From TrEMBL:
This is 18S rRNA (guanine-N(7))-methyltransferase. The lineage of its organism: Eukaryota, Metazoa, Chordata, Craniata, Vertebrata. It catalyses: a guanosine in 18S rRNA + S-adenosyl-L-methionine = an N(7)-methylguanosine in 18S rRNA + S-adenosyl-L-homocysteine. GO terms for biological process: rRNA (guanine-N7)-methylation. One of its GO terms (cellular component) is cytoplasm. It is found in: Cytoplasm; Nucleus. InterPro entries: Bud23-like, Bud23_C, Methyltransf_11, SAM-dependent_MTases_sf. CDD domains: AdoMet_MTases (cd02440). Residues 220-229, 236-245 have a biased composition (Basic and acidic residues). Pfam families: Methyltransf_11, WBS_methylT. Transmembrane segments: none annotated. GO terms for molecular function: rRNA (guanine) methyltransferase activity. Its main location: cytoplasm. Residues 181-251 form the 18S rRNA (guanine(1575)-N(7))-methyltransferase Bud23 C-terminal domain.
Length: 254
């Protein structure tokens, strides 16, 4: 329907905006889950070039019929991104990446497929570029799974949430940096009434050092306590200052 097309176009514009592309030259972008090429139309209008990947032959047929400007590739991104290193100046994806969380076949392992996607995407992107992936997560576990695999693959960055206070307009954009410590862009509509900003979720590679295999710090360890205190501070709660005694074991008889 035209409403879907309109929302899709808005999200494409926002994703390209979050890429922060240079204004003075055309770029080559990868569109993951390009479908019928609606995002591509916007990329072309902006004077950039693109290659679109999609798993659906029917959708790509529509893109061909529409005579989109980009090149099209029928492929499952869970098998990886089959392009040479550093080829793309950026990647966008609209409403596609969450599908990698589903195991459609017995042989499918979502963490492995996500890792394969992110690690090969990392390689295919030029140094200093970004990937902006708009997605509809089913729950917070999915978000955790997706961001954890992106971090494992070497990306930094985090989630930009537009209109976090609106049930309808709320949108998640995973904004990933390749070897660039960019600051995470601000989400739209994140100014609260009193001018306070809602803190965006950020992650860097630093946080992965103290994790056990499951990806969490060992419970009750010093790192676990410090992370918990930091979370509570971010929520604006009163938390005791960290000292050298934080997380220390007491002697059996105190």
């Amino acid at each position: 329907s035209s409403r879907v097309v309109e929302i899709q176009s808005q999200m494409s514009e926002r994703a390209v905006e979050l890429l922060g592309l240079p204004e003075d030259r055309p770029c080559l972008l990868l569109d993951v889950g390009c479908g019928s090429g609606l995002s591509g139309d916007y990329i072309s209008d902006e004077g950039h070039y693109w290659i679109g990947m999609d798993i659906s032959p029917a959708m790509l047929d529509v893109a061909v019929e529409r005579e989109v400007e980009g090149d099209l590739l029928l492929a499952d991104v869970g098998h990886g991104i089959p392009f040479r290193p550093g080829m793309f100046d950026g990647c966008i994806s609209i409403s596609a990446v969450q599908w990698l969380c589903n195991a459609d076949k017995k042989s499918h392992s979502p963490p492995k497929r996500l890792y394969r996607f992110f690690s090969t995407l990392y390689t295919a992107l030029a140094r200093g570029s970004r990937a902006v992936l708009q997605l509809y997560p089913e729950n917070s576990e999915q978000l955790e799974l997706i961001t954890a695999q992106a971090m494992r693959a070497g990306f930094t960055g985090g989630m930009v949430v537009d209109y976090p206070n609106s049930a309808k307009a709320k949108k998640f954009f995973l904004c990933l940096f390749v070897e660039a410590s960019g600051t995470l862009p601000k989400g739209l509509g994140t100014e609260c009434a009193d001018g306070e900003e809602i803190h965006q979720a950020k992650f860097t590679n630093e946080r992965t050092r103290f994790r056990n295999a499951k990806g969490k710090s060992v419970k009750k360890s010093r790192d676990w306590i410090l992370e918990k205190k930091e979370r509570r501070r971010r929520q604006g709660k009163e938390v005791r200052a960290d000292t050298k005694y934080t997380g220390r074991k007491r002697r059996p008889r105190f």
